[in-house]
Design brief:
Elements lengths: L2 E5 L4 H11 L4 E5 L10 H4 L9 E4 L2 E4 L1 H10 L15 H30 L3 H36 L10 H15 L8 H11 L2 H10 L10
Parallel strand pairs: 1-2
Antiparallel strand pairs: 1-3, 3-4
Helix pairs in contact: 1-3, 1-6, 1-8, 4-5, 4-6, 5-7
The chain binds glutathione (GSH).
The site of glutathione has 12 residues, from loops.
């Protein structure tokens, strides 16, 4: 049977939600982060070469990387409507958001997080210079790209209720992590009614509620601010 190795406050929540949405049988093993470093504990790091969450195992099979895991699990559930098949009218939309989550949104949020870490953890005389220099990078590169994604999300969710089409797909599930990261930073506080509606819709879904109950944490993500 598939085992999900779930690290608290991490991207492995996605896999937890996917398994609940599929009604799949699986074993859940939960791990706390190292209290000092907030990284995965040594036991978790030993599971896979990258040492990152999520990881699933099944016998000798070990798989890391959120979207690889999601595709692997969906391969075993070909009847599921969580991944529109080739030829489906929502196939392109689903593929775009499923991959934009990792390829654009997570990577840009990662750059923003690194800039913030450098600004806040550098001694004060240098901090001011870094902030000024990074301000330009944020404006021209990071925020410009992120805002383009958020605006496209708002527009797409005005046309169909979910990122992958009219119903929940793996695109919504993989986006859940960066979407909460953005919401926690106040990105959607104003001017994003369709995105706000998406949060309301997913939070009412039985599979999401079940995954949150198993996650048993007050937030779904862990942010370095
Ligand atoms: N692209 C990878 C990113 C994995 C990743 O960075 N996971 C974080 C959790 S959100 C992690 O494992 N952090 C703990 C650590 O690095 O020790 C994926 O989607 O699986």
């Amino acid at each position: 049977m598939l085992t999900l190795h779930h690290l608290e406050y991490s991207q492995s929540f996605r896999v937890l939600w996917l398994l609940e949405a599929l009604g799949a049988e699986y074993e859940l093993k939960s791990y706390d982060r190292d209290p000092k470093t907030r990284l995965a504990p040594a036991e978790y790091k030993a599971l896979s070469p990258l040492g990152t969450a999520p990881v699933v195992t099944d016998g000798d099979m070990v798989l890391a990387e959120s979207n690889a895991i999601m595709d692997f699990i969906l391969d075993a559930h070909p009847q599921s409507d969580l991944r529109p098949a080739a030829g489906h009218k929502d196939r392109a939309r689903h593929l775009f958001w499923f991959h934009a989550a990792q390829g654009t949104l997570m990577s840009m949020q990662g750059v923003a997080m690194v800039l913030t870490l450098l600004e806040t953890r550098t001694p004060w005389p240098i901090r001011g210079i870094l902030k000024a220099a990074f301000g330009q990078v944020r404006k021209l590169f990071v925020n410009a790209r992120l805002n383009a994604v958020y605006d496209l999300m708002e527009s797409d969710l005005g046309k169909q209720a979910f990122f992958g089409g009219d119903n929940l797909t793996a695109a919504d599930i993989t986006l859940v992590y960066p979407m909460y990261a953005a919401r926690d930073r106040g990105v959607f506080d104003t001017d994003y009614p369709n995105i706000s509606g998406w949060f309301v819709r997913i939070e009412a879904m039985p599979s999401y509620i079940a995954a949150r109950a198993k996650d048993n944490r007050e937030r779904i993500n862990f942010l370095i601010r």
